[in-house]
Amino acid sequence: MKKKVFLLYLLCAGLTSYAQEWTNKINDPDWHDRRSKGLQLGDKMPDLPLGKVYNNKTGKTRFSEFKGKLVILDFWTSWCEPCIAGFPKMEKLQKEFGDKIQIILVNTTENIEGVIKKYPELKLPDLPSIMKDDAGNIEILNSLLPNSLGHQIWIDKEGVIALRGSALNNTAKNISDFLNGKDIYILKDNSVVPRFDPNYPYSKLLGDFKSTSVKYSSIITTFNNEYQADGKARAENIIDKASGTIRNTYINYPILDLYENAFRAELLTGLKTEIIYYHNRQSSGLMPYLIIPKDTARYSDTFHRKISSGTEYVKNRFCYEQIVPRGISEKHWKVYMQQDLNRYFGFLYGTEAKMEKRIVPCYVLVRTSTKDKLESKAKNRSIVKYNKNGMSLVKYDLTGLGLLGDVIRDSHVLASYFIQNAKKGEAALLLNETGFMQSKSIDLILPESKDLKTIDDLRKALQPYDLDIQLAKREIQFILITDNSDKSI
Questions:
Q1: Residues 54, 60, 62, CA angle at the centre, nearest 5°?
Q2: Helix 330-349 crosses helix 255-270 at what angle (to 10 degrees)?
Q3: Where are the domains of the chain?
Q4: Tens-digit pLDDT profile for residues 10-31
Q5: pTM above 0.85, yes or no
Q6: Concatenated DSSP letters for 72-121?
Q7: Are the C-beta atoms of residues 284 and 277 closer than 8 Å to each other?
Q8: CB 109: neighbour CB atoms within 10 A?
Q9: Which of 103, 126, 438, 448 could form a disulfide with 392 if both were Cys (CB 3.0 to 4.6 A apart)?
Q10: Does the domain formed by 28-179 have CATH 3.40.50.170?
């Protein structure tokens, strides 16, 4: 199946990643045929004659004679204005570092006579300059060090190529650090890297780059059949110290689950009570209450559990990954996730998800006394079924109040009751207002779920623990999802 990919990228440099040679994918014949050839970083500079050198006050005629110094080759031509503008800087650096370095200008296309004739007012710096000559020395040098204007070559004191790149590398600090054995950042230029190929997506090259990292990105793809298909997986708040980023990844998630994760922080911050049960989810706990469009199959198969084919299974499942700079709060990266999802699924279905507060009817679990009759005395978690006075009972030790959501869910009659209530706009969720968190360890004895036919049956079972379930109205935070399908339910 051909995958659709939705990308939002903001990128900048940083982390080192190791992969295959991305340059093989680039359509730049000039780079492949000429500029990428010749000596590379770490190669030894051959002992070549300098050839014709204008203003050669060094008295040296071969590259080997500069051993023990940092040699900087600065490529120029008379029509290169930035090259000429950089002459005073290069002259100043030579004076500052003296015998520790030797800056040599290199002009591969012109001889000195032609330059002086064409530009009689041009003032060349007090630096030696290798020029084109009849002997062909410059062609040999150019074949070993193919270049572009403004290109710089650094040759260390052992005669090894240590830098190929931009003239912006020529700073007093860089030279000082290099001479002292420190690493420096090398800014490349057009002579050592290929051009951007507009026919090849930048995103497909990212894993291949050796010195470029993603600082901010968001990616949405359709279901990824190259991962384990049955189920979903996620990784949140994965910190990459080297690149200074946080990564959040969700693999093969139903759209509804993606939205729940995107709004979770906001929902949990807004809740004054815990939700023990609501009609449209399989799991209990601190989960948001959702209003979604009529075409629920677009978003989740929770509502249509009988999946008949693979294509039906993957229809609402997508992958999402987000990378953001460290320091961005969870609240903010969740907002970015909401925006990403709305942008893509808005394009796909006209979907818009947002937070909304509504006053709705609901059931609330409350205490009827100040006495704590829930404190667990058990040492181990257990579930034991037994009969007493002709009733089938279940003893739950070291459980929590969230258990009541599972009990309602397992009672098909009660679960159906909540679903019907939701359709009629009546109470469709159970809130915990006891003051006890669901994580509190408690012991409970309840009838088997199949014997709980009504809310009153559950209320009666909770009376010994000074608990009751009451009908009330509460302001609840919703994820309100709308789209271009029929009206919401």
A1: 100
A2: 140
A3: 28-179, 360-482
A4: 333 333 333 346 666 777 777 7
A5: no
A6: EEEE--TT-HHHHHTHHHHHHHHHHHGGGEEEEEE-SS--HHHHHHH-TT
A7: yes
A8: 15
A9: 448
A10: no
